[in-house]
Prior knowledge:
two-stranded antiparallel sheet, alpha/beta, 9-stranded mixed sheet, 4 helices
Amino acid sequence: MGEANTVTLRGxxxxxxxxxxxxxxxxxxxxxWGGIEPTGGRIIESRHELSGQSFKxxxxxxxxxxxxxxxxxxxxxxxxxxxxPKAMIFNYMNTKIALGVVVTxxxxxxxxxxxxxxxxxxxxxxxxxxxxxxxxxxxxGRPGGGVGxxxxxxxxxxxxxxxxxxxxxxx
Length: 171
């Protein structure tokens, strides 16, 4: 298990750092000004496929930035509010996103050897090493545990994956 469920992508790191987290993927570009609500880290553009969802503490995977030059300001505000994504992975570089990832100060990777939108799905566990430009995707969620946050004994038991803790039962 483990390695059979992982895919490694190689690209160009823009803002260094190493983080892991759950992926939030969209095929829609993201508008900063009027497209996100920075205090909650939510997409608010009404026709966006992630409308109403929060990117806080997620690995945000998206094609790129659209809209005005307010993109960087809105993502900077999300960082100040503690609601920024953990990392950004995207396809298309422009001046909005270049400045945006710098002021957001989260690891960011682009120019990957495979289209991340074809490889990464929402809920996959992703390790972003923007120092080396490497993205490791574990399909189906966190290795050895549930999708999302820290693995608990209850999550281990619920998944039935190796390492499962059996709470009070002798099988």
